## 1
Amino acid sequence: MWRDKDILGGGVFTLMGVAAFVMAQNYNPGSALNMGPGYMPRIVSAAIVLLGLVQVGGALMRRTERELLDSINWRALALVLLSIAAFALLIRSAGVIPAVTAMIVIAWWADPARNLRHLPALLVVGNLMPILIFNVGLGMHLALWRVF
Amino acid sequence: MLDGLLIGAAVAFTFQNLLYCFLGVTLGTFIGMLPGVGPLVTIAVLLPMTYGLSPESSMIMLAGIYYGASYGGSSTAILVNLPGESSSVVTCIDGYQMARRGRAGAALAVAAIGSFVAGCIGTLAIALFAPSLGRAALQFGAAEYTSIIVLALVATAVLSHGALVRGLLMALFGILLGMIGMDLNSGVMRYTFGFTSLMDGLDFVVVAVGLFAFAEIIRELSPKKEENLGHVKIESLMLTRQEARASVKPILRGTGVGMFFGVIPGIGATVSSFAAYLMEQRLAKDPSRFGKGAIEGVAAPEAANNAAAQTSFIPTLTLGVPGSATMALMIGALMIHGITPGPNIISERPNLFWGLVVSMWIGNVMLVMLNLPLIRLWTSLLKVPYSWLFPMILVLSSFGIYTLSNNPTDILWGATFGAFGYFMTKLNYSPAPFILGLVLGPMLEESFRRALLISHGDPATFIQSPISAGFLAASCGIIILMLVPAIRSKRANLESEA
């Protein structure tokens, strides 16, 4: 039952709404005449909790067929996030070429239709494109590589 | 207005701006044809790069991508029965049927001509009505702004996905995340979790790239069966006399429908194309022809979605209230240059406003020339596999975020929102209301606060002003319209169970 999209989604929103509402207690609500920083967060997070509960409640009462969460593509998710993280870690310390190369190799690995013969071309185009756009076209000075 | 158009022509006809207009519409046509890459992703990715351009050039190019995509989207809808983007879904119905009957060329021609006529009339409508709406908007007080923002949020939340609670939840969550950072009035840090990178708030571009580029890539990389696209041959692009006569009125009616829906924040190209299609079906002498290749079923929705794409710039520019996620990105592009759209934009930035208006007309001319004679070239581009596209999108998006503030942490925030967007679409939540909530949230809080301050804390101020009351009534109307069929079908279910 926890895989029902309404129960799962509504439940997540309810929890986030509760958390936001609790955190909003640290902010001064003020009054309607003179709203403080806590006024809107309280209204909005309360509304989220309310609607989240409506969604979960509606799903629990429903007799019709449930719409279940289908399989999450963990492999693509993990590898794409990893490739972005690799880029973020390398771009400043190691420069454009190492960052792009790491990103493309990891992302290529995530592709179910990958072909090893395409990888060199992807690397060349992937490196040239940002260099041409940002360094040449827009005149930014992004270091291509740095020696440690 | 004539002076304005002359100023605009002087801006739009410079070599640089013609070039960016051409770049925009070409890119727009291309990405409109590719399924999985829409105008939202493209604009989100390009947004950081527009920093180096003048505000005029960047708006001209981004707008070109937006309305260019609706031309490209209709070509794939007709030829391979795949809507390249959401506003072309209706075109699939009759367009593909026409193509199967050997009238692909005629369907493409009527779609392009319909879009062109609608684009020209829509541009004229902006030139005519935006200044007066801008003047009317000067009368808008805090209460009116609060209500129109509520309307934009409710309409997007409800209409973008047809799911009331889901849409509202995403919009509210967007508003909540819009509060992250320092509260401008009190200086209190809200929801920063101690991250210094969150003290200035979430950067809208970072979130947009994460939600629309990264999440989309994760979604598209799932293993799926090779789709065999049935390619249709394009013979003559000429319309027969009968076809031409049959499409004149639908094009004009579609334009009217599109212009009307485009101006209302939160409604927009997709809804107006459906509305135009339904209207033609109602008006037709023989409604049974629809779905079997009726040319009216291509002409009217194509005109409507392009007209709506143009007129949706009216509230965006003159009120500063974006009516859709794409329009929110347009505002983001202006904010990069430190320009806040609003009632004064026409008088303060005539070059920007009129230049954009004139460039839209030029862009529509370019699009007809790009799309009709060169259609065979475009269809060969359709075969670019996603394996080649997604690494490039990934690289450009990451550079886009990084060059925004030279801060690698922003890229990680983008990745976080990519994961968030992926999980949310898996649970059937649509990202459009979220991004709109994020943009409109701070505006909503500020105008809500000011409205209550002026009225001494009396909430009746929102219904005492007729304009504000009208916006709120419209919001309630949309919600009720959505609830009524749900209740009815539930009752039908109960009866069938009993």
Note: The first strand of chain B starts at residue 181 and ends at 182.
## 2
Amino acid sequence: MGSGLSIEGVHKRFGALQVLQGVDLNVEAATLTAVLGPSGCGKTTLLRIIAGFEQADDGRLVVDGTNIATLPPELRHVGVVPQEGALFPHLDVGRNVGFGIPKRGRSARVAECLELVGLAGFEAARPAELSGGQQQRVAVARALAPRPAVLLLDEPFAALDTNLRAQVRSDIADAVRASGTTTVLVTHDRDEALSLADHVAVMLHGRVLQVATPIDLYRHPVSSEVALFVGEAFLVPGYNDAGASSSPFGDVRVHGPVGDVLLVIRPEQVVLSSSGTFATITGVSYFGHDCLVEMVLADGSTVATRVAGHRSPAVGSTVHVLIDGVVSSVVR
Amino acid sequence: MPPSQRPPVSLVAPAVVVALVAIAPVIYLVDRAASSGWNVAWREIAQQRTIDLVARSLTITVMATILCVVVGVCAAVLVTRTDLRGAKIWRVILALPLAVPTYLAAYAWVSARPSLAGIDGATLVLVACCYPYVFLPVCAALQRIDRASEEVARASGRSGLSVIWHITLPQVRTAVASGALLVALYVLSDFGAVGTMRFESFTWVIFGAYNAGFNPSRAAVLSLVLVAIALGVTLAEMRARGRSSYRLGAGASRSGFAFRLGRKQIGATLFLTVVTAVAIGMPVGSLVKWLVRSTGQQTDWTDLRRAAFNSFTLALIAALVTLAVAIPAGVLAARHQSVTSRVVERATYVSHALPGIVIGIAVVHLGIRLLRPLYQRTPLLIAAYVVIFLPLAVGTVRAAFEQCPPRLEEVARSLGRTRRRALWQVAARLSAPGLAAGTALTFLAAMKELPATLLLHPTGTDTLATRLWTHTSVSDYSGAAPYAAALMLLAALPTAVLGWLSGRLVGDG
């Protein structure tokens, strides 16, 4: 343990399709990095290359100063949790978890790993008797049992139903953190990536476009594409002159490139207020705890924001809106 | 993502060797045909009687295959998808005709109704004996498919029959196609039924050319034509099969609802009863009749016991060796879709269309030329069995491994297993029922095999089949009866196992 993973210039082509075009990513030791991207961006291929199930056409995978890119999967010390777990159906839970560890001390380690994922005492259960979430926990225990240098999670929560997902994923993230294993989580779910990971790598079109902490990524995206992928946003043209720009909302504070830019305004930055720009409410969708308010500004641009349920305004009424905090700018 | 990894040499090399062994008889045939000159060969092919022969053989192959598909698929749907009463017992009973050698069934029919001789009788016997080749794989495939699609179709207002036709059957196309392929190749190479029914198909004429006229080059040329037809059939199957896919769902595939038969219950039971009566009742009935007649005669129990022991051991060794030899080619076909894997798999199929007699003679020649010390020894006979039954075994190995998702092997490898150990500890364990079924099938076929056994059996080592042949060739049915009974009893054992396995193939999963 205590080793990071460094992915350097990984290329992969399937026939005419260039799936990965030079992926660079540094995963710090004992941290959880999420690779976030839409389906088809190459993130699963990247994961399979790290695991050794696919060979990269070019590039290096460095763990502990050694390039593991040419090693067969069994010598890489890389644990894998595939989508839907892929437990061995012919083995009970204990033998699934113990599959990758030597006989000596096996039962103790199996018990330890099952405890870590909250399934202490489940050794004798058959995979078919477990719920989806339990299967996923066993798959994580199985991957952690041999103390891998790197753990790979391939959309492990996608198949779980929504009610279960939040609990399973926070438990599993805790288990992974407690083990101190360097972890790569592949997902297309931005909430999952932002809430679980220490660092998020946004992957689009076979490239990593930005790696940052969730806060930095959300606040300071490097491009409009990244900005729109990690969360909802309005893009409005502006001119960043030393940290300030005019906008349909009046003058706003700006962080990011200067000159002609696009301002990235997050819906939660738009707040109803007693002063500021005039806006006319055009629609309200009520959800109880909050509501989504759509409005049109004096210059004709439309924006939406969320306000607490008990502050729901009436359709047709006129309000003032302000921008709260600093908006980020991206190159136009 | 497509598994893009190139297959390892440790898998490709043995597979290619196996493919070469499988096509060795064809190489011999080409050599033989060429030795008398290509002009002679061409004249043989262009003859009117050869063209008639091709037409006759194609007719019986197409007829028998279509009928086998109809009977096999109907029976499989009834057994796995409806509330048919006694479905579990039917599944075992319907597999049993595999235990009946075609020459035995043909004798039973033709001695009771001599007018059946000819194409009608031959077709009847071949369909009765071969439909399980379709029934068994289709049963297994039907159990494997996800019921959700059927339920959705049902909910959208389709009738049960329409759902089966439009939703269920398209999903088992692979199994139907590979079953049909086995039937077609079996019919092309069958000697027992056509020989007994005096239907002049390829095998019958080739046998005649070897035996009576002793014209080995005509026999070789005709055999090559037969190989060409077989290749055509396998190519057709490749197109009909489409792309295979396995279920990757998380949980167990639910054992969903059954289609209600209602008043059709009686019709369905009647249909299955007729099939069973034709396929098993008739040969078993005749056998009993002969046995009763033979009670006056003395049966040589020592000889019977020795023949039974020989049949059993030879078939068992043949089945195990064939399975071992088939694994590389089957795994290659299931795990690494490529031109190489397809060519290797198809090469093993070529020999399936060759009559046992042709393979037998090819092996005899190879034996005399290359392996003289082995001639008329057990290893050479086993080698012939391996060549004959390789397609059966490769097909089952492929199907068994295709069922096991490759992702499980990947996980095993990430947990420190080498490719080979992952294959062994995960895929092989999960495909064990499929592999067992394949072994049982080969065991059965080897026990029933006649022509190659007649040619190659070690001197003094008679089997049930050869003893049976000795008696029936002089119309001594009563003398043959004990051997026939022993053969069918021994063969019924693995067949019942097969029927049971086809229900368990998807196991606890």
Note: The two ends of chain A are 43 Å apart (CA to CA).
